[in-house]
Amino acid sequence: MSFPSLDDIETPAALVDEERLERNLAKASVYMREHGLRWRPHTKTHKVPELAARQLQAGAVGVTVATPREAEVMGAVVDDVLLAYSPVGASKLARLMALPGHVRLSVGLDSREVLAGLAEAARGVGRTPTASAPR
Questions:
Q1: DSSP state, residue 42
Q2: CA nearest 28: which of 46, 55, 50?
Q3: Of 56, 121, 61, the residue nearest 88 (C-alpha)
Q4: Across residues 30-59, what is the average pLDDT?
Q5: Residue 31 clears pLDDT 60, i.e. is over it
Q6: CB-based contacts of 73: which residues, under 8 Å, 6+ apart?
Q7: Is 94's pLDDT higher than 60?
Q8: What percent helix, strand, coil does the chain show, rounded to 5?
Q9: Chain centre distance of CA 25
Q10: What Cα–Cα distance (Å) separates residue 56 from each residue in 13, 72, 73, 77, 133?
Q11: Between 121 and which of 52, 58, 93, 102 could a Cys-Cys bridge form, CB atoms 3.0 to 4.6 Å apart?
């Protein structure tokens, strides 16, 4: 198989070294298992559902996202999504509540007001919110 020269590739462009990717996924998986850790990579560096799926295949328990849009994109391939930042505003809450029912959504919260808004939005669409303290 021949590949184009780097001079022929329009930038910006994402180039992936498949062998290195596989080595890194395997290395992360081994490390997590050996240390009894649960791996939930943040997708901010790649934003690629196919790569998130490969991270899950390598042992990740879910993914972390920064925005409702990222949750929507990753929810197509991942059943367990952590939204790292508190969603504020009706439109963001509505988008989160529209995620497919199979997606387990966890949300990092920074105030009781945000929790109240999230709980109200969940109840409004027939979902049951649950709370847990950080471990």
A1: B
A2: 55
A3: 121
A4: 95
A5: yes
A6: 47, 49
A7: yes
A8: 45, 10, 45
A9: 16
A10: 25, 17, 15, 9, 25
A11: 93
Query: What's the token pair of residue 39?
Result: 């791996």
Give CA–CA dist 24/27, Å, rounded: 5
Q: What is the CATH number of domain 39-125?
A: 3.20.20.10
Model pLDDT, residue 72: 96
Per-residue pLDDT tens digits for 71-93: 999 999 999 999 999 999 999 99
> What pLDDT score does 135 carry?
56
Between CA 105 and CA 43, with CA 54 as vertex, the angle to 5 degrees is: 50
Rounded mean pLDDT of the chain?
91
Q: Residue written as tokens 């879910």?
A: 62
Domain boundaries, the chain: 39-125
